[in-house]
Structure of ATP-binding protein:
Amino acid sequence: MASALTLDRFVAPTVTATAKIVVAGAFGVGKTTFVGSVSEVPPVHMEETITRASALVDDLARTPEKSTTTVGIDFGRKHLGDDLVLYLFGTPGQARFRFLWEELIVGALGALVLVDPRDLDASHEILTLLEETEVAYAVAVNQFDGAPRYPLTEIHEALALEEHTPLSVCDARERASCMQTLIHLTEYLAHLAHRLEPRP
């Protein structure tokens, strides 16, 4: 009985499918906050204090209060319905960790890319990597306090997204907002999977 109870702490007995989802984006865009907002278990964070050396490399102009940075991964888990569990892997944002981005997207069903409306250009490198590796993704604009609010059509064009790529707005601090972006992503991934199913 004890072992059964222990197993129940991990996934519900009704779960029939799991999926690896990568939460990606530029430095300081809110990935760690996002994973923490939606994870149903205490999230794992691999963060270190920002040193003077890293401050010289990483742009802190938009996040002057930021004192730590992800140097490994963020990890969380979320049941999405009774039968599906999402395992969330947040990437470090700095381009010097590209080797880790490449490792984390292996085996991922899809990715959610968070972007900062104050610096859309910072997202191009991770978007290019996902396209090169053919990992399906959706994009969510993390609407920081005081950040400009652009029409989604303009952001879609500025990021040079494919017409079918989902684009939404979220607040990484709010669970309901983050959940909606995950639902958009999984619906999109399900649609792609349905299109790829062989016809009888």
Summary: The radius of gyration is 17 Å. Strands lie at 17-25, 44-49, 68-79, 84-90, 110-115, 137-142, 167-170. The chain has a mean pLDDT of 83. The longest strand covers residues 68-79.
